[in-house]
């Protein structure tokens, strides 16, 4: 598969770009909900528009009302989401939870997928248990209890957890804290008893929950996939999320970079456009190079997931790490080159820096993925 | 000499023990704990008041200023002992102000005797809170291109224009302000004026920063009448008319020196040992911390060398620019790493556990370090020109 | 189509099996293993000769050139199959030359039919070894400022001047050379001339590099007589007189594309797994390798995207400049890390264990990557100007 | 102690600077011996001149004919050595071996120090056993044998080993490979039987030996300090060497940087002096900043060793690492900014790059010292 967009993908990119700029723009969405102090951190109306565009169920197979598209196409939408800093549950619901539900029973699919496709439901994923992403260690336990399970433990950094109708929760049903085996994924409905959410606003104005499970009773049919065999589903969901986050990160970096080059062409100091200063030109050209490389890597990672390629895991981590480093560079250079006004809330460039921080941390920062690249490479 | 200092140290220790309330021996935890003085100042609590007043009586709000201007007239060595002894008990500064940090040094260097008597005493006693009017929307790095204009009306000027990045202008009583008084001379057409913020035509508008705080304002001047004198021997400007750029340059250098010196402590400390208390599981993050610690501890050595050389007048006069550049870039990196080590917890913007998002807000605040007081780019230009003497720089 | 390719692949495999001697299926281990052709060429051994001659007969020294010019006329898809099959058995290139890489593409694009017939066949058959005369001592990055002058004498020029960085000029037969033919027009006053290095007045002097090798020369032209034509329809210059800069620019672009593409394989591979075979005990070095591997594998993705886009004419025309910049900086970093992992052993300059200092010499050689074929600084200038369209760039 | 040179030190700096530029310059020493293919890699004549200047014994105490100076003073000389790329056995003989001999018996001092002070003797140190510096692990063994010891094992990267009259060899007399205890230092004379040297030329034209000890018989009085108690002496010798190498590295970096700024003021391209290009100006200004910081750190490290300060070890590693990083930056920028001619053997800038490589590797590169900084800091 060539590493550029084919005709269909280019059409999708154009559609997504236009839609997101018009409906998902910073003024209309991010600032609007932020300044209102919205408890969701995103607009349900926009989510329904996502559904009308076919985005919400784009990775759901056609038998369940979706479009049966792949990571490459989701990445195209995510790049536009990133570029416009559009707050939405797309990554967690339509990419990650959808990936997990792909392994679920027909009953479970029938229960949750229609709402997703229609843009009525929002899903969240509960994996992390500490401030740094470490999915190898799962301490939240689900013990057999009658016909079902009883869930005990705590999760953190559950993005949009409080807005979610259903949470995909990774729990341990057997084995030790860091074992590969013994993981089970559960679809936990929002109204489950003995589940307490403590939602907090994050630096990028999104909401994330600390969640406590204090003996949450779950039916046996809440299990996604096989009992004790959830690691593979979890890994697939994480890969989908990481590749998606990489694509979104390319958008964040690209948006920040475009704002910055525009500013270089407008702002005058010392009687010159600041874009005329060679030191800034070279730094901008360097960011451009890095950004192109990051974009290619994100596309490649998505394609490899779609092809179920052998080294997909490695390249997904490479993409998450590379995009992480490059987006950080792009927002840092963006704020610095904007000078004083870059520090003001009135200008958007700071919003890119904030979003990069949260997105970069989500599902493993570049330190995590650099370490993973080394491990996967055998050193 | 050393004996005298020992005596002074003992005396100081005793005085501090008696005068500095327990509550004032805690690290400053946010803006609320800083006493800025001024007409509308209120003390946060009795302890703050008592501590300020005790210091004011001793001249310890500005310990190294001459006694006749409200200081304690301490020698550099004595002032250092006082600093050390205050640091030993974690004593908070009794009074913070741009009058102390900025205007004071300018007046001590350029002011008339009348100005010193009048303004320095006010500052030392915390009666007047000052703000600084330098930057304008179109004049950031290129400060000298500023446009705020004072029309000469004989015994007064009529000032029109707009300043930006005036720290706490909405809470300040007076402003020291660069005003163009000759449009035909870029450098020799600026006057360093002092005037009351309650004058007609002065208004301010806070600027909300990405950190969510608003320590800076836009300040508008709309036909503001500024008299040329505030009485016998007290001109309303520092230095000469049209020679305000000399004062401004002096203060910029002083500011960079202060940033270079003052910021040292935090910036030159290693970070790894602190963060390691919560564990550093990731070996790549550990490596990044080690690389940072090398840079930070090395910068600490440079800070020491810089101050040692400053004391004896060694070192290149443009060296503060290098210190400002290296120190601020380092501090940004420090906060990047603190955020990375903090993980998702450090992303929180409003939670109690983070005291209202302190890590994230502090991180965002540091991004201004390499912009305010001269951008890193301007610092590099200055190094290239004045130290390396590269052509056309 | 795919079926045809399968047949071609089977055929190629069979031919290679029969024609490529065992000794030619080893990685090239130093200059001695490369066959450059030319008047004075000598084969290193019988196997090299047999392999070269087998390829020459098939047109496989330049497989994608038309048959009438000595190539095999392969389609891009067929050429790719041949490359793959040769790589599969580690077959060495039968012939290397600047004629194939540089002059050939220029002639294919700008040459007359007569030039193509004459020069391309010579190149394909390895009869003439070419070198490139571009840079001059005062004209490196600013190539167009070159001064070597050809005085018009009617049916010939008298050329005087000096070139530098002429690769293997001391072993080359002919040179393609930029010569100023109009002093009044910087860009439109250069002619792309071809002439014999045995002409009177041409002399060369090898330049010793920091790696200890001398692949480049200084080339001096002292009243060299260059005829304007080598026969009917075979002018002695490519393109038009005074329009050599167009040819030069085309070739520079081609060179950057080639560097971007060709260098990919090594540069886009990860390094950690290779170095880890000898153990990486230091966790900070391991972290640096992981960071490098991220960059290298990511650059590999970009390389793939770049080539995919090149095939269908997508991608910005200045993109090779970006690839050249990123790829060469990466390759330098690669060798820095290889040296660090190699430790004191890699420092050895003459030992047998290092095959005469190969790690150190290769490391030093890579430092030229970001200088030759356009410096990194020039690449960044081009990106700023042509892609980002920054003002005044 | 203030972090600038006092009056005596300034005098020493002026003397050393003048002497090294006149007698130890690149043309006269490095290129001269290199182009002759000299088997020592340095000139014995210059070494005698070092003695006349008082340099060879500057750290030897006055009772033994030296000047009793400290690391700070040695660092001043080393910075000039670095700046001129002067090949000499100063660092290994006058700093490292002298530091070890300080702990030796009077007999041993009497045997070796006069030759050093007079510039007649050259010493080398044999610590490393693999291509990466790792002095914690010492596998070379010295077993009791009659009145003395029998040495078996192999050492590598013994700089100027083949020119040395005496080698300070770290060997294990008891305990396991990586134990702190059980190390003993020996003064091994050049003519010791069963010692084989395989000298190789390094990238910087210096010579270093691989050495095999195949049952080398040593008298008991060859022991430096106490049997089994050599770790402390070894550490002191290594600290002295590392701080010294940092000072020399500052000189290498400074020499390369000065060459480069000079070139920026001479070379024209595009009708301008290349030093007029802002991108190069900013890069040069950055190197300047880093170089000043590195210099301050090297001075501080030397002073702390002289004061026997508590955290001297930490700051020595900081200095070796920081100088390593900065010198590498300075030589890389130097070669790049010189462009094509920087790649030629004719210009000196490449010699700085080569020397930096070898010096940076000696006694631990910045990866080694970064790891050590973390360990010493408890993480």
Automatic annotation (TrEMBL), chains A, D:
Keywords: FAD, Flavoprotein, Oxidoreductase
Boundaries of every Acyl-CoA dehydrogenase/oxidase C-terminal domain copy: 229-375
Matching PANTHER family: ACYL-COA DEHYDROGENASE, ACYL-COA DEHYDROGENASE FADE28
GO molecular function: acyl-CoA dehydrogenase activity; flavin adenine dinucleotide binding
Family: Belongs to the acyl-CoA dehydrogenase family.
Classification via Pfam families: Acyl-CoA_dh_1, Acyl-CoA_dh_M, Acyl-CoA_dh_N
Domain Acyl-CoA dehydrogenase/oxidase N-terminal: 7-120
Cofactor(s) the record lists: FAD
Entries under CDD domains matching the protein: ACAD
Protein name: Acyl-CoA dehydrogenase
Residues of the Acyl-CoA oxidase/dehydrogenase middle domain: 134-214
Automatic annotation (TrEMBL), chains B, C:
Domain Acyl-CoA dehydrogenase/oxidase C-terminal per the UniProt entry, residue ranges: 242-388
Organism: Alteriqipengyuania halimionae
Stretches assigned to the Acyl-CoA dehydrogenase/oxidase N-terminal domain: 39-127
Bilayer-spanning residue ranges: none
Origin superkingdom: Bacteria
Domain Acyl-CoA oxidase/dehydrogenase middle residue range list: 131-224
Name of this chain's protein: Acyl-CoA dehydrogenase
Keyword Methyltransferase: no
């Amino acid at each position: 598969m060539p590493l550029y967009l084919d005709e269909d993908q280019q059409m999708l990119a154009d559609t997504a770009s236009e839609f997101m700029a018009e409906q998902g723009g910073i003024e209309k969405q991010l600032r609007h909900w932020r300044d209102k102090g919205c408890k969701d951190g995103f607009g349900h109306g926009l989510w329904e528009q996502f559904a009308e565009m076919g985005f919400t169920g784009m990775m759901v197979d056609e038998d369940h009302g979706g479009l049966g598209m792949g990571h490459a196409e989701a990445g195209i939408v995510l790049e536009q989401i990133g570029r416009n800093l559009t707050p939405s549950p797309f990554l967690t619901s339509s990419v990650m939870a959808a990936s997990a539900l792909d392994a679920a029973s027909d009953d479970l699919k029938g229960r949750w997928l229609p709402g997703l496709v229609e843009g009525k439901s929002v899903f969240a994923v509960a994996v992390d248990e500490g401030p740094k992403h470490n999915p190898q260690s799962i301490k939240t336990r689900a013990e057999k209890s009658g016909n079902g399970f009883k869930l005990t433990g705590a999760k953190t950094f559950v993005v949009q957890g409080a807005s979610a109708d259903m949470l995909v929760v990774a729990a341990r049903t057997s084995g030790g804290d860091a074992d590969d085996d013994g993981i089970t994924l559960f679809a936990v409905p929002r109204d489950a008893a003995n589940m307490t959410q403590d939602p907090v606003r994050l630096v990028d104005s999104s909401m994330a929950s600390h969640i406590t499970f204090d003996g949450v009773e779950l039916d046996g049919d809440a299990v996604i996939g096989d009992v004790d065999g959830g690691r593979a589903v979890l890994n697939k969901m994480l890969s989908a999320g990481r590749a998606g986050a990489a694509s979104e990160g390319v958008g964040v970096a690209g948006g920040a970079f475009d704002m910055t080059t525009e500013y270089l062409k407008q702002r005058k100091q010392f009687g010159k456009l600041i874009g005329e200063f060679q030191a800034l030109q070279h730094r901008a050209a360097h960011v451009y190079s890095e950004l192109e490389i990051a974009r290619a890597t994100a596309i490649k990672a998505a394609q490899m997931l779609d092809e179920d390629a052998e080294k997909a895991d490695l390249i997904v981590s490479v993409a998450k790490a590379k995009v992480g480093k490059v987006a950080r560079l792009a927002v840092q250079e963006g704020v610095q080159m904007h000078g004083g006004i870059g520090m003001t809330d009135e200008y958007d460039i700071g919003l890119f820096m904030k979003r990069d921080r949260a997105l970069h941390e989500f599902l493993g920062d570049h330190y995590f993925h650099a370490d993973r690249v080394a491990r996967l490479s055998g050193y | 000499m050393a004996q005298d200092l020992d005596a002074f140290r003992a005396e100081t220790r005793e005085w501090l023990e008696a005068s500095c309330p327990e509550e004032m021996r805690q690290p400053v935890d946010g803006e609320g704990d800083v006493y800025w003085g001024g007409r509308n100042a209120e003390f946060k609590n009795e302890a703050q008041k008592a501590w300020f007043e005790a210091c004011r009586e001793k001249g310890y709000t500005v310990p190294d200023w001459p006694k006749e201007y409200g200081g304690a007239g301490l020698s550099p060595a004595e002032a250092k002992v006082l600093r050390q002894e205050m640091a030993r008990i974690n004593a908070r500064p009794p009074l913070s102000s741009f009058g102390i940090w900025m205007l004071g040094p300018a007046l001590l260097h350029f002011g008339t005797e009348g100005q010193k008597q009048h303004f320095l005493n006010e500052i030392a006693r915390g009666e007047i809170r000052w703000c600084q009017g330098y930057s304008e929307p179109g004049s950031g790095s290129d400060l000298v291109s500023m446009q705020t204009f004072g029309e000469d009306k004989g015994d007064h000027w009529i000032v029109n224009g707009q300043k930006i990045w005036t720290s706490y202008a909405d809470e300040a009583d007076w402003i020291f302000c660069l005003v163009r008084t000759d449009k035909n001379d870029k450098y020799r057409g600026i006057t360093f004026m002092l005037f009351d913020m309650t004058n007609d035509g002065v208004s301010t508008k806070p600027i909300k920063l990405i950190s969510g705080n608003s320590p800076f304002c836009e300040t508008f001047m709309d036909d503001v009448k500024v008299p040329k004198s505030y009485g016998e021997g007290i001109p309303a400007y520092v230095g000469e008319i049209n020679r305000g750029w000399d004062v401004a340059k002096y203060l910029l250098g002083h500011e960079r020196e202060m940033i270079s010196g003052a910021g040292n402590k935090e910036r030159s400390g290693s970070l790894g040992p602190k963060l390691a208390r919560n564990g550093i599981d990731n070996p790549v993050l550990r490596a990044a911390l080690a690389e940072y610690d090398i840079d930070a501890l090395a910068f600490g050595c440079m800070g020491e060398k810089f101050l040692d050389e400053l004391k004896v007048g060694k070192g290149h006069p443009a060296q503060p620019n290098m210190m400002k550049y290296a120190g601020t870039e380092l501090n940004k990196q420090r906060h990047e790493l603190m955020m990375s080590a903090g993980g998702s917890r450090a992303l929180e913007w409003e939670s109690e556990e983070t005291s209202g998002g302190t890590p994230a807000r502090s991180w965002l605040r540091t991004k201004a370090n390499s912009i305010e007081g001269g951008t890193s780019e301007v610092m590099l230009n200055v190094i290239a020109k004045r130290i390396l003497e590269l052509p056309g720089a």
